[in-house]
Amino acid sequence: MKSSYLSLCLILLSISANALAADEGAAVVDIYGNPVQAGVEYYILPVIRGRGGGLTLASTGNKTCPLDVVQEPQEVDNGLPLTFRPANSSQGVVRVSADQNIRFFAVSVCIQSTMWTLQFNDSISNYIVTTGGVEGNYGRETVQNWFRIDEFDSDYKIVHCPGVCDTCRVVCGDVDVLVQDGIRRLVLNGDGPLKVMLKKA
Ligand SMILES: *[C@@H]1O[C@H](CO)[C@@H](O)[C@H](O)[C@H]1NC(C)=O
Ligand SMILES: *[C@@H]1O[C@H](CO)[C@@H](O)[C@H](O)[C@H]1NC(C)=O
Ligand SMILES: *[C@@H]1O[C@H](CO)[C@@H](O)[C@H](O)[C@H]1NC(C)=O
């Protein structure tokens, strides 16, 4: 009894130590320099011009659902608005390198949620960013649902490397674009991170 309680405490301690490190970090700011607020709608837009627009949902390859996260083909398109939910739900702003759930604020034709989740795709031998994640429950059962925003040059990149616990083996990588059949899919670890900025919707 006593020893199981002790190990539970140790697990809780390591979770909060990881989450705390990022809670101290700087706030992510939007294109006007304002802190990005949890639960408020933003567009995630590319910084580099002429290579696609904002982020949106699309069916890719030969499957209809769940929808995958892709970039709009046209630079002028903002895509769909998104909201962020920090792993530490008492955080009102999105902090650099803190784990978040990211969700499209949109209605989908699929039964799956519009929340981002990472999934391995055998046919392209890479992890893709798709949807159908479940909100919250920060821990080893939900590792695939957490993304963070890291500083990258003077802009940002999206990273998957959840700090859910010290003993979990997690996949780490930068979110990048893979162009396939003319569709700009979000994957992990491609040619280089997708450099992004945030604009209030
Ligand atoms: C969550 O964020 C709040 C507000 O910044 C902070 O006081 C608290 O320590 C954080 N909790 C954890 C577990 O990181
Ligand atoms: C994996 O990618 C291929 C090629 O784009 C696609 O046809 C297939 O439906 C994808 N599978 C899953 C499970 O997403
Ligand atoms: C369709 O998707 C499945 C699952 O990813 C894959 O095994 C199959 O090869 C794909 N078929 C075609 C024609 O792309």
From TrEMBL:
SUPFAM superfamilies hit by this protein: STI-like
UniProt cross-references to SMART domains, sorted A to Z: STI
The UniProt record lists the keyword ATP-binding: no
Keywords: Signal
InterPro entries recorded: Kunitz_inhibitor_STI-like_sf (IPR011065), Prot_inh_Kunz-lg (IPR002160)
Family: Belongs to the protease inhibitor I3 (leguminous Kunitz-type inhibitor) family.
Protein's name according to its UniProt entry: Kunitz trypsin inhibitor 5-like
Organism: Salvia divinorum
